[in-house]
UniProtKB/TrEMBL annotation:
Keywords: GTP-binding, Magnesium, Metal-binding, Nucleotide-binding. InterPro entries: G_HFLX_dom, GTP-bd, GTP-bd_M, GTPase_HflX, GTPase_HflX_N, GTPase_HflX_N_sf, P-loop_NTPase, Tmem141. PROSITE patterns: G_HFLX. GO terms for cellular component: cytoplasm. Residues 421-598 form the Hflx-type G domain. It holds the Pfam family TMEM141. This is AGAP003969-PA-like protein. It comes from Anopheles sinensis (Mosquito). The keyword Magnesium applies. Residues 175-195 are annotated as: Disordered. GO terms for molecular function: GTP binding; metal ion binding; ribosome binding.
Length: 661
């Protein structure tokens, strides 16, 4: 008995529509039974009424009634059962939109657990007829897709299974190369196929890992399907754990996170007061019932919800499980939504590896919660080999990242040798960091986007200061409050460059209602980062910039408020990266700070025409202008920005030589 219950629980976990399917089939059977009884009684009665015209015996009457009612009951039951199956299929489809995993118990033949993209289709239906049902279902649910596409997809599956069967963890470079070629399409096959890059791609494109990750977080690599999301922002109304940020603003941020994912539509957005964020079902029983009812009513009214986003940093396994059972929809938290955004926006290999590493603490915490809270059944329960896979993956990711970082260190040293002053641009996500760098450097290729975490790679962009000195602006990953530290820690290393920069520009979004809180959060994080780093957050290295001033021009109180919040008498530079208002003044300030912090000075040096001095200056200082000396035709006036050390060297090499010579 207990075994059956356990089996049922497992099925429930794997198939969210299981319960309603059982319910629906039971109803169908009873309806069939009722049809039989009523049909039998009805036909028998009619025969009795028409006895005069139907001259056969009572036994004959019973036989006719039994045949007619059996046929009717069979028809009703089978129609209803088919409807139940169709409903289950639809529910499975909705659920599996977020989970591309495939039942490991899939029968031999078409399916393999390596199949990713169409895993959800395989999962939803019986495969025993070689995928024919799948094909029918696919064509029915995707009327715009043709058979060709279906064939391509199945081929893709077969190839993937064929070439990825030799486990990536056992080596097998050739298999890996093919796997990668298939995975990324032909355009990627030209890429360098060095051992390192292949190994890194294998780490990123690991189907076995993907199935664990998608069941723990509901995240996927390829966001192809439209999602209909209900956002619920819980907030503590009273007490010491009450957030300093207004719930409306938290809710807005949650909405902005969802809007950062293409094809994700917000169908419903609510903020709900709670006593604590730690309760197993998060909300009070009455509230939970109300929410369940509301979501159900929405679904019935034709709003096709596909997931619920509870805007809390991390939900424990127990909370997630309870809420998923209650809502009958996948539930995501801030961590998993941010991971989904990061997966989407990660372009460089370093960013991809970092996102991959950022996912692991979450999966481990869910496994730990699950083991602590239940008997161990359920979706993300890990087998021993999956645990080993995760541990090995973590080690490999750390190793690869360390390699990339040592390369980054090399680049940093090279930059130092070249003596480029570095200006890091930091700030809350979406504050306009990329836009500001675009305005400062006039680099057309930069693409600011109205999305959270649009920039995930630290990139350097050359720009010229008004004195013609060349500087490097570093674009960085944005900060965000209420993101678990485990997630951001992985990106901290990319911020190392920013922390070691000569000058730090802190961009603030003046048009954002929560500007003050955002600023405080960035400063807190910077202070923590600096504590671990080599340099301090001295005020002379910081330039505070109030961006998007064009959006608040008519709201003087916003500007006055922001200016008065700037600490230690520091100035807040009001700019608009869009209209370029205030950009020139900001450049002058960057120049002033760069010269001050790096000990550089602007000077005009008289050197002999055609001498070694000019070449030396070009190599060791930033020459901004040269002109003939009006007082002496044999001399040249060289305007340069030069460090104190280089100036001493120049004096030592040329001035003393000249004096002695
Ligand atoms: N009106 C106005 N919009 C701006 C200004 N600066 C940036 N934006 C807009 O703000 C949005 C975010 O700009 P980004 O430069 O991508 O912001 P970011 O800080 O780099 O964002 P992340 O990389 O996602 O952290 C874009 O839609 C920009 O067009 C400005 O001065 N005025
Ligand atoms: Mg950016």
């Amino acid at each position: 008995m207990n075994d059956i219950r356990l089996l049922k629980d497992q099925q429930r976990d794997k198939h969210p529509g299981f319960d309603s399917y059982i319910e629906c089939s039971t109803r169908s059977l009873f309806t069939g039974l009722a049809t039989f009884s009523l049909g039998f009684a009805g036909v028998y009665f009619l025969q009795q009424v028409g006895q005069r015209y139907l001259p056969y015996t009572k036994k004959g009457n019973i036989l006719v009634a039994a045949i007619v009612s059996t046929v009717a009951s069979y028809k009703v039951t089978s129609d209803r059962m088919r409807a139940c199956q169709a409903r289950w299929m639809a529910v499975e489809d909705k659920y599996s939109v977020l989970q591309e995993t495939l039942d490991t118990a899939a029968p031999e033949g078409v399916a393999s657990k390596e199949v990713g993209t169409i895993g959800m289709l395989f999962r939803a239906v019986d495969l025993r007829n070689g995928g024919e049902t799948v094909r029918q279902h696919y064509i029915k649910t995707n009327p715009t897709d043709n058979l060709l596409k279906w064939q391509q997809l199945t081929q893709f599956c077969f190839y993937r299974r064929k070439y990825t069967d030799s486990s990536k963890y056992k080596g097998g470079k050739v298999a890996g190369q093919r796997h990668r070629a298939i995975n990324n399409g032909p355009e990627d096959t030209d890429e360098s196929c060095s051992e390192e890059s292949i190994e890194r791609s294998e780490l990123i494109d690991d189907r076995e890992y993907d199935s664990v990750a998608s069941s723990a977080m509901h995240v996927t690599k390829r966001i192809q399907n439209v999602q209909h999301v209900a956002i619920i922002q819980p907030y503590i109304k009273w007490g010491p754990r009450k957030s300093t940020t207004k719930p409306e603003l938290l809710q807005q941020e949650a909405e902005a996170l969802v809007r950062s994912l293409p094809k994700w539509n917000i169908e419903l957005s609510l903020k709900i007061p709670v006593d604590t964020l730690d309760k197993r079902q998060l909300f009070g029983t009455g509230k939970l019932e109300e929410l369940k009812e509301m979501l159900r009513a929405r679904q019935e009214a034709g709003t096709p919800l596909t997931c619920v986003f509870i805007s809390k940093g991390t939900l424990s396994y127990g909370q997630k499980h309870t809420l998923e059972q209650a809502f009958r929809l996948p539930v995501m938290d801030r961590y998993s939504i941010v991971v989904q955004i990061l997966r989407l926006h990660a372009v460089s290999m370093e960013a991809k590896l970092q996102v991959a590493l950022a996912e692991l603490p979450y999966i481990w915490s869910q496994v730990k919660d699950q083991e602590g809270s239940s008997k161990g059944s359920g979706r993300i329960f890990l087998s021993d080999s999956q645990r080993q896979m995760l541990q090995l993956r973590e080690r490999k990711l750390r190793h690869e990242l360390a390699m990339i970082r040592s390369h980054r260190e090399l680049l940093r040293n090279r930059r130092r040798q070249k003596n480029f002053p570095v200006v890091a641009v930091v700030g809350y996500t979406n504050a306009g960091k990329t836009s500001l760098i675009k305005a400062l450097t006039e680099e057309a290729s930069l693409q600011p986007r109205d999305q959270l975490f649009a920039t995930l790679d630290v990139t350097a962009h050359a720009g010229r200061l008004p004195c013609k000195l060349e500087v490097l602006y570093m674009d960085t990953v944005g900060f965000m409050a209420d993101i678990p530290t485990g997630l951001i820690e992985c990106f901290v290393a990319t911020l190392e460059d920013a922390m070691l920069a000569d000058v730090i520009v802190h961009v603030q979004d003046l048009a954002h209602e929560n500007c003050t809180e955002q600023k405080a959060h960035v400063e807190r994080t910077l202070r923590t980062l600096m504590r671990n780093g080599e340099r301090s957050l001295a005020p002379e290295r910081i330039i505070n910039v109030g961006n998007k001033v064009d959006l608040v021009e008519d709201r003087q109180e916003v500007i006055t408020g922001a200016v008065s919040e700037t600490p230690n008498g520091g100035r807040l530079h009001l700019v608009s990266s869009k209209t370029l208002h205030g950009i020139h003044e900001l450049l002058l300030e960057v120049e002033r700070k760069v010269l001050q912090v790096t000990g550089r000075q602007r000077m005009v040096i008289k050197v002999p025409m055609g001498g070694q001095e000019v070449a030396w200056l070009y190599k060791n200082a930033a020459v901004t202008e040269t002109a003939a000396d009006p007082a002496n035709a044999e001399r040249l006036l060289v305007s340069a920005v030069i460090t104190e050390a280089k100036l001493q060297q120049f004096r030592h090499l040329f001035v003393r030589n000249r004096a002695t010579g």
